[in-house]
Amino acid sequence: MLTDTPDHGRIEIRKIWTTTELNDYLNFPHIAQAFIIQRESIEKKTGESSSDIAYGITSRSPEQADPQRLLATNRGHWCIENSCHYILDWNYDEDRSRIRTGYGPENITRLRRFAISVIKSKRVRSVAQKMRQLMGNVRLVFDYLRMTENSCTAAFPN
User: Fold this and answer.
1) At 25, phi and psi to the nearest 5?
2) Angle, alpha carbons 146-150-156 (nearest 5°)
3) Which of 20, 65, 92, 147 is an S-S bond match for 142, by CB 3.0 to 4.6 Å?
4) Cβ-contact 34, 22 below 8 angstroms
């Protein structure tokens, strides 16, 4: 069981059950464990509670990933996913994208994530602010990335 300390106005409790007993029954390559994570949260202000269950599998053996590690890994995945999704949704309004066919949605998301990671790699305070600054001016983008011989590097501290 794991209780998160950064509460964001709620109390969260996570419980995990792991097993290797299902490995022979699950038709999935390299499976080493199956697990269930139950998440319960209580809003501090309203007292409203919610509960959900997530099922998962991993190729990590119980020796490689005990229940505590699986919980931590699962939690870390969602922190990264939520952080990236928030930036994609608010800065690119990705949920309203009209790109829906073929490989278009996947490709544009990869390009957007790449752009975000390049900006984050420069250790900026605000990805959104930097994107607004660079938006619509290709020269500023090239200067920011120092891709031209006569870049205005002094104008763009991280």
Assistant:
1) -95, -20
2) 45
3) 147
4) yes
* Cα(157)–Cα(140) distance, integer angstroms: 12
Rg (alpha carbons) of the chain, rounded to whole number: 21
Which tokens go with 146? 């120092």
Q: CA 113, CA 87: separation in Å to the nearest integer? A: 9
C-alpha pair distances (Å), 5 with each of 8, 9, 11, 86, 130: 9, 11, 8, 22, 31
Across the chain, what does the average pLDDT equal?
Answer: 82
Report the percentage of the chain scoring pLDDT > 70: 82
pTM: 0.51
Edge-to-edge order in the sheet of strand 49-58: 2-3, 10-19, 33-43, 49-58
Q: Which of 73, 87, 156, 78 is nearest to 120 (CA)?
A: 87
- DSSP one-letter code for 11: E
> Over the stretch 45-74, which tens digit does the pLDDT of each residue have?
999 999 999 999 999 999 999 999 998 888
DSSP secondary structure of 91-148: HH-GGG----STTHHHHHHHHHHHHHHHHHHTT-S-HHHHHHHHTT-HHHHHHHTT-S
